[in-house]
């Protein structure tokens, strides 16, 4: 892979940017601010799998952004049997998006691996996250300067794993699929999506998924050095 690749495409959430930590800090802030009397630990235990379910539906074009943002909170509060009116759910949904980029924790190996790769490769981002949030995350965590192109599903009109977003990214970077590698945490969206257009892949298996043993997998971002 090292001899073939010129361009590296990273996912952002759960790959470089520590989504779970930043999301927990955001919910801690807004639930407290609006007097929502639930335990943060209980809330997050319910919210996390529900959020993953809604993102899968969103990737598959089965729900729109607004349904994702409302539905994941509504279902969480219902599961907790916490009575809350729709107006407050919509407020919390908006405040979550507003405050999330204000927390900027990265995985601790993110900066070291970006520093290692930057002199030798063209670096880019491909993300399904909401456009207005992702730019803030990159800027506030001080990693935006590492990347030449930031490709967002909202601007392309399709989401990973749709091959069109990867084709668009390759076009923007003016690089062949055989010279590019996609690095991300989501096996379906990042690995299978990129492989469908002929890109190399590295699966950052942070969720400990049971996946194809033939795929390149890492448990720590610094392991990328073994391949690039």
UniProtKB/TrEMBL annotation:
Record-annotated membrane-spanning stretches: none
This protein's name: 5'-nucleotidase
Pfam family of the protein (one): Hydrolase
GO molecular function, one term: 5'-nucleotidase activity
InterPro entries: HAD-like_sf, HAD-SF_hydro_IA, HAD-SF_hydro_IA_YjjG/PynA, HAD_sf, PGP-like_dom2, Pyrimidine_5'-ntase_YjjG
